Amino acid sequence: MKTTTGAFLNANDNVNSYPKLGAYDVGWIVLCIGMAIGSGIIFLPIQMGVKGFWVSITSLMIAYPAVYCMSKVYLQSLSATESCDDYANIVTQYLGKNWGAALGVAYFIMLLKGMLAYASAITKDSASYLQTYGVTHHSLGSSVWYISLLIGAMVLIASRGERLLFRISGPLIVVKLSIVVFLGVSMIPYWDIRHLGIINFPNALSFLRDLLLTLPFSMFSILFVQILNPMNVAFRKRESDRRIATFRALRASRYAYTVLVVCVIFFGFSFLLSITPAEARYALDNNISALALAAKVMSGDVVRILSTLLNVVAIFTAFFGIYLGFHDALKGIVVNAIDRVIVRSETFNKILPLCIAAGTIGLLVAWVVFGISAMSLMQITVPVFGVVSCLIPCCLIWRVPALKQLRTPSSVLVFLFGLLLVASPFFKLLEH
């Protein structure tokens, strides 16, 4: 299918005439923030404490601009197609069905790990909390009916569309972000400039190794690329002019990014100033999060309540956010395969979301019930993120003539950052 450059703004466009920021835009901003705040932000301070000031600040200076450019390039590279239904469909319009299928599978794998991890955490953690707070006498974490009901309810809510998610997730995400800021503020009385270790600059080889190992933590602390294509599709459906749809998606992404950068940098450095390298190393060796370290300045009950609240809210809101992308990925794979053999009917298009929801419930329930390990998926997560979020959009930009306007230094930065993400797990072998 033919693509054009009509999605891109030019100097003659009057953006002041474009729609002002409205409730729908704010809803997507909130979902982007909710998608980003998860385990990455909770363990970032520990990694910063272990690796020290120079590695931490350099990692953030590389990762945060790269994430901004990545999000922009990612959205723009998916915005120039005539139609916009799902990720695989967009790639198919650029490169054909075979590339659409292959890259659609890569996109699916990127999101699959998150879905499986969140499904397991939702069931196990919620069952544990119900028992801890005396709601149940024993844990329901291994009960098939409890797992099925909980996951079924979550998928049904998420599959109803973004407007319902705005109403459900919005207040929860505000609570989540407020807890993060509160934790950072609570550490201020314990700031000590000596904890930064500014005078201790590591040798060049150790610095490079630790920098590459810290980059994924920095990236995941503000990353919401999983939800960008669903947001892109949603705005394309609401706007007949692709330029306006792209403008609104980029604006929502930019606002979410700004809020995240300010809050996460404050959160991370507040803890870095408050804990010693020895405390950070102990936390890392014992898999302790920043929440547990906060116990040094707050009572045990407060930490327990905040930990429970943040954990539950983070898992639920992240699940809702990633489901939109997961549905988008799975739909793309199915449609790509079906279109090769039959012409889809309206009836098929209507029942497809129901079939995807049912299949997702079955997959997640089976995963949790059988307790399958997610270690293999966790090990490939970072390289897959690098490939899907950085390398693929850049390859599209340099291969597709319709995207030649995006061949800028930003796209080169994104490509190089993608290579670093692909290589970063291998440097773990060099860590002592």
TrEMBL record:
GO terms for cellular component: plasma membrane. One of its GO terms (biological process) is amino acid transmembrane transport. The chain crosses the membrane at residues 26-46, 52-70, 99-123, 143-161, 173-191, 211-235, 255-275, 305-330, 351-374, 380-400, 412-430. InterPro entries: Amino_acid_transport_2. It holds the Pfam family Trp_Tyr_perm. It is found in: Cell inner membrane. Its main location: membrane. The keyword Nucleotide-binding does not apply. Gene3D superfamilies: Amino acid/polyamine transporter I (1.20.1740.10). Keywords: Cell inner membrane, Cell membrane, Membrane, Transmembrane, Transmembrane helix, Transport. It is a multi-pass membrane protein. This is Inner membrane transport protein YhjV.
